[in-house]
Design a protein that fits this description.
112 residues, mainly alpha, single chain, 71% helix
Length: 112
């Protein structure tokens, strides 16, 4: 067990984030794939005065946005728990009291 007392889920998340090497070009490609056709379809609908095309494009963009927000929210809890433990560990190191992971302190484990 690490001195930070990270859970298995937190260690897994931290490993994924640490190993991620995302290039700007791949991010643009990732977002352009679903967004460009929807935007194009919406523009076509506006120019051709086709309300159905505009509505379908809007629903596609709304679905994509909800999907991305839900994905981010799913990982916020784990990330916040990691940062809280790192900050608590940093505070304890500055005060000269490095916590022992085998013995829980009086305050118990950190929330998260």
């Amino acid at each position: 067990m690490s001195k930070l007392g990270l859970t298995e889920e937190e260690r897994s998340y931290l490993a994924r984030v640490a190993l991620a090497r995302v290039r700007r070009r791949s991010l643009v490609g990732f977002y352009a794939g679903p967004l460009v056709p929807m935007i194009g379809f919406g523009l076509y609908g506006m120019l051709a005065s086709e309300d159905a095309a505009v509505g379908i494009a809007f629903l596609g963009l709304a679905f994509f946005t909800v999907w991305r927000v839900a994905h981010e929210i799913a990982h916020v809890r784990v990330a916040e728990a990691i940062w809280a433990k790192v900050e608590a560990y940093q505070r304890s190191c500055e005060s000269g009291q490095v916590p022992d992971p085998d013995q829980e302190g009086e305050s118990g484990p950190l929330p998260g």
